[in-house]
Amino acid sequence: MTHLPDALLTIDGALRPATGGKTYDVIGPWTGAPVGQAADAGAADVDAAIAAARRAFDTTDWSTNVAKRVELVTKLRELFEDNRARLGELAQVEAGAALGAVSRAHVDMALAGWDDYLKVFPGIAWEKDYGGREGYGFVSQRKAVYEAVGVVAAITPWNVPLYVNVGKVVAALLAGCTVILKPAPNTPGMGAIFGELAIEAGFPAGVLQVVFGSDPALAGEMLVHDPRVDLISFTGSTGVGKRIMEQGAATLKRVFLELGGKSAKIVLDDAPNFAMEVASTMLVFHAGQGCAVQSRLLVPRSRYEEAKAILKHSYASFGDNWGVFENPAHIMGPVISKRQQDRVMSYIELGQAEGATLLAGGKTRPDKTPAGGAEGFFIEPTCFVDVTNTMRIAQEEIFGPVLVVIPFEDDDDAVRIANESEYGLSGGVSSGDLDRAMAVAKRIRSGSISVNGGMCIAGDLPFGGYKASGVGREWGLEGIEEFLETKLIAWRT
Ligand code: NAD
What pTM, to 2 d.p., does this model score? Predict the structure, then answer.
């Protein structure tokens, strides 16, 4: 297994170890053994990062010099291109992506999203004229100007680290903010590379900081509490998101949240290729560790037995074609950590206790660990049938390779089941009748929805959640606008 280069912090224009030289081991999901070492940032490091970002925002022309920002963000994008191989290696070794998934959701989508940001950026309106208005015996001319919100803390998860880091950091930088990126403890390298390449690109000191450490909460909580930070952009679990919103209230922080999901795919009875629609919902890509994955499959009760047979066959055909580190065709590897493995396995036990039927999978697979490793965090592709929507396996986000299959009576019932969820991130509808599918899609309370396989997630489209799936939108023009404030100026004429 590759040993990754040491992950260093970036603070005030310099790559550096943590104060006192503290480090921690980065545990590889494939082997359960260390694959690298990362600086273990403490309070002094986080404080220095905040101070640098504040100073750079308040005392440099970063927030007003649009041309300079575009030039540097474009230069940084080129450096990421030059480092594609390193990014792929990080996604695989650190985040546990299988080789066949590395390029897609991990590297290609992230870099394509970056290009989308650069393409849509000229569409940002920096001013809006509200015209003149008479009142109090005189005329006021009015306009709004849009300005960078200030210092942004971007707190990100481990599942698709490059994609989420780009989604926040690039948008905030383009908007004119200075940024502190705080990646998850499991994926420091994918954060560290951002700082390293920003220095190489010639970013002014203080514009981009990267801090991480072994304690998942320390740096994040400091960023949330500190009055020098203006906005928290967070992607992660709903529990931590709620805590951030509560704690951010003390300093009335602007808080932007991308949280969990339990998205439903509804295959209607007239779906033209019913078997393909059902089979393609197998939750295997990146071991199901995606916030917007369709983890509840809803099929008509009249075709439930047929759907079961299709899935039984699909899982059997998928077989053991996953979890081999070197295999470029594999799209599923391990889950990120022992903790996550235990969590997913506890849901698999729970599903059985709740009375659902295990149609496929359900076991850990330590035998998949590459030679020389300790014990990798592998879980078989797993599918539960005979699931009712009130079961906890249907309501709670498992974040692993576990699909649940629920029957519905008619379109109204399918909509009801899809919406009877705390979450509302994404989803899908398939039907031979586009009007019928669109009517169902419009009734689903979620931030995005795919009809007949349409791609509803791309870098030029706003992405985000309803309900407990989040607040605000990332990507696209809206994703950049999240980092702007509105200032209204009126002058007497
Ligand atoms: P997590 O919530 O445990 O951690 C996310 C980040 O928050 C990490 O950087 C972590 O160190 C930090 N953190 C932890 N405790 C904190 C605290 N008290 N204050 C501030 N920061 C804190 O999530 P995770 O386990 O890293 O990622 C998995 C979760 O992320 C899943 O729930 C998944 O749905 C969600 N996710 C959502 C999206 C989306 O766009 N909606 C995308 C990817 C992942």
Answer: 0.97
